[in-house]
Design goal:
Blueprint (H helix, E strand, L loop, with lengths): L3 E2 L12 E3 L12 E5 L14 E5 L11 E2 L20 E3 L13 H4 L3 E6 L6 E10 L4 E7 L10 E7 L11 E4 L4 E4 L20 E4 L6 E2 L2 E3 L2 E3 L25 E7 L2 E3 L2 E3 L6 E8 L2 E3 L2 E3 L6 E4 L21 E2 L2 E3 L2 E3 L11 E4 L5 E3 L2 E3 L6 E3 L8 E3 L2 E3 L11 E3 L7 E3 L5 E3 L5 E4 L2 E3 L8 E3 L4 E6 L2 E3 L3 E5 L4 E6 L2 E5 L2 E5 L12 E3 L2 E4 L7 E2 L10 E3 L2 E4 L5 E2 L2 E2 H6 L7 E4 L4 H11 L4
Parallel strand pairs: 13-17, 14-17, 15-18, 16-19, 17-20, 18-21, 19-22, 20-23, 20-24, 21-25, 22-26, 23-27, 25-28, 26-29, 27-30, 28-31, 29-32, 30-33, 31-36, 32-37, 33-38, 36-39, 37-40, 39-42, 40-43, 41-44, 42-45, 43-46, 44-47, 45-48, 46-49, 49-52
Antiparallel strand pairs: 1-10, 2-6, 3-4, 4-5, 6-9, 7-8, 7-10, 8-9, 11-12, 34-35, 50-51
Length: about 600
């Protein structure tokens, strides 16, 4: 798909002269139903996000399918009214963008598509269509779209256009006239093109359609190459849970209501939407020895279901019906070049899903996180013996792995026949190598309230921080990891709430190599020692060989019973030494 119009070299216009207000600027015809379930709750462990919160209707009407979202409730505990969906309604462009654009009429741009980055970090991309052009004041407005970003911002950032006839001025650009059903193509040669054109129409190539009461059982697919599924970024999207994502419940291979379903020794190539999705009830499914490349959206996704609408939404927290993926295994897969069109994309994404095992995979080259957990639903997930690198290539404020945990959910623990609980099982991230060689904030980004993680024996290279906590994230322990070339700190609490003494965090027996001198190797709230993490046994390397915590040297802290066994060393170890440490913790020596 090269039928887009962008400026030379960069691929995107640098921005708009002005971003115009969108639907959030006007009060909705009916206000949303503001749902807040306080019983049951998880307030013993979660300080900022103890309850279940969602909004139904209001801004969600005509935007998301179903019309419910954490970000449509003006009382959401993340940002309140400032955090509701608030995408732009148009833009005023600079005439320097393209002289041809100012000469077009509304009729000529109606079927065009404008792609817009979320401002302030490139957290997602939005697509808009049903365009109107006002050449007298260089204004483009739109009537549809924006639902690809659950947490849309009122201003965009970089943007580009596609499917506008008068802008066909570069080789390989094309325009499709929907009314006349004609395709116009700029050929990069003389004469008639010798190849063929293939128009993809099927978004879903294989649909496995069962249910919890009548599941499709024990189907195995092997040795199949799936390719060239159609894009779905202009079709309805929903908000899977309380993370930042919006997602379309569709994929090239769409599996709903299956047990012991296996795909092995297969490939997914140039799937312009999501490649593979496990939707609603799924148990013991496996993807093994598979390859995913050039994927328009997310390569693999698992998205469960809870009833967000009945009785004004008060049942949305309840997952005890079991209508979600559980015990999924992703093993020996290779995934690269994801998020070609929709930028909020990963190699693996899950929401309302638990006890997934991601083992011995190689994931690389994506615009956002390589693996994304959209919520803390149930927990019990494993990421092990895998290699991830080259993510956040087009964005920031993420890592090779990202998680959020902004909403309370209840599931049967520890298995389907267990007891309902709002406290998730511990998630384990063990024995992986992650390289944050683009704009990683951390290789493991436990964002916004994330709890119950054990991150052990990993080799984590680059990033701003080693371990991150914010919005009272808790019960997260980094143990026995090697962090190489961090800029600047090994552990940071970004604030937004403090943990309770019973549910603190820990940074223990790690080797942390800081690439620059900074006063402290950790950043914490020095005024509240009840919320301090357990810091002990850490070996810190930096150019000066000096560090402190809350104004105290390590020796002074150790006299008070903190940082027992920790030490700071002068200089940066040689690469050979760092690699030797990595081989040891990864059991490769």
């Amino acid at each position: 798909r090269q039928g887009l119009h962008t400026p030379p070299n960069t691929g995107w216009f640098s921005g708009a002269q002005t971003w115009l207000p969108g639907r959030a600027a006007n009060a909705p015809e009916t206000p949303p139903i503001e749902v807040r379930v306080t019983s049951p709750n998880r307030s013993d462990a979660y300080v900022v996000y103890p309850y279940y919160t969602i909004g139904i209707g209001g801004l969600c009407n005509g935007l998301f399918t179903p019309n419910a979202s954490f970000w449509c409730n003006p009382q959401n505990p993340r940002d309140g009214r400032n955090g509701i969906w608030n995408g732009p309604g148009g833009l005023v462009y600079n005439t320097s963008c393209d002289p041809h654009l100012s000469n077009t009429t509304s009729v000529e741009v109606t079927d065009g598509v404008v792609h817009v980055w979320h401002s302030g970090g490139h957290w997602a991309s939005m697509m808009f269509t049903n365009l109107t052009h006002h050449p007298d004041n260089n204004t483009l407005t739109w009537a549809d779209g924006g639902f690809q970003d659950a947490r849309a911002s009122p201003m965009g950032a970089e943007w580009y256009m596609e499917n506008i006839a008068v802008l066909l001025d570069s080789p390989n650009e094309f325009y499709y006239d929907k009314a006349g059903k004609d395709l116009y193509f700029v050929h990069n040669d003389s004469g008639v093109p010798s190849g063929t054109f293939v128009a993809t129409t099927l978004e879903t190539i294989l649909h496995v359609n069962g249910s919890k009461s009548a599941p499709v059982q024990s189907v195995s697919i092997s040795g199949i190459d799936f390719r060239d599924a159609a894009a779905g970024f202009l079709k309805p999207h929903g908000v899977p849970s309380s993370g930042d994502w919006a997602l379309r419940r569709a994929a090239g291979v769409f599996v709903e209501g299956a047990t012991n379903f296996t795909i092995s020794d297969s490939s997914f190539i140039r799937m312009d939407g999501n490649a593979l999705m496990f939707s609603k009830y799924n148990r013991h499914n496996t993807v093994a020895n598979a390859a995913f490349t050039w994927i328009g959206g997310t390569a693999m996704a698992a998205w469960g279901y809870t009833d967000e609408l009945t009785d004004d939404g008060v049942h949305g927290y309840d997952g005890t019906a079991g209508d979600f993926p559980r015990y999924t295994t992703i093993r020996n897969t290779v995934c690269s070049e994801v998020g070609i069109f929709e930028k909020q994309a990963s190699c693996w994404f899950q929401a309302k899903t638990m006890q997934s095992s991601l083992v011995q995979n190689i994931f690389f080259n994506g615009p956002r996180a390589g693996i994304n957990f959209n919520d803390g639903f149930g927990g019990g997930n494993i990421i092990e013996s895998s290699l991830l690198f080259s993510f956040t290539r087009e964005s920031m404020d993420h890592g090779c792995f990202n998680s959020w945990d902004r909403n309370m959910f209840m599931v049967n623990q520890p298995h389907d026949d267990g007891t309902p609980s709002v406290i998730p099982q511990v998630n384990r991230i063990h024995g992986n190598m992650m390289i944050g060689n683009y704009q990683d904030q951390e290789d493991v980004d436990n964002d916004d309230g994330s709890g119950f993680y054990r991150t052990t024996n990993n080799f984590l290279v680059y990033g701003h921080c080693g371990q991150k906590v914010d919005m009272a994230g808790h019960d997260n322990f980094h143990i026995g990891n090697v962090y190489a070339y961090l800029f600047p700190v090994c552990y940071v609490d970004l604030g937004g709430g403090e943990t309770t003494p019973r549910h603190h965090n820990g940074f223990i027996n790690n080797t942390c190599i800081q690439g620059q001198d900074i006063a402290s190797y950790v950043g914490i709230n020095c005024k509240d020692n009840q919320s301090w993490p357990t810091l002990e046994g850490n070996q810190i390397w930096n150019p000066s060989g000096e560090t402190s915590v809350c104004g105290m040297t390590l020796e002074q802290r150790q006299e008070r019973g903190y940082d027992i066994g920790s030490a700071v060393h002068k200089g940066i170890p040689a690469d050979a030494t760092i690699l030797s440490l990595a081989k040891h913790i990864l059991n490769l020596d």
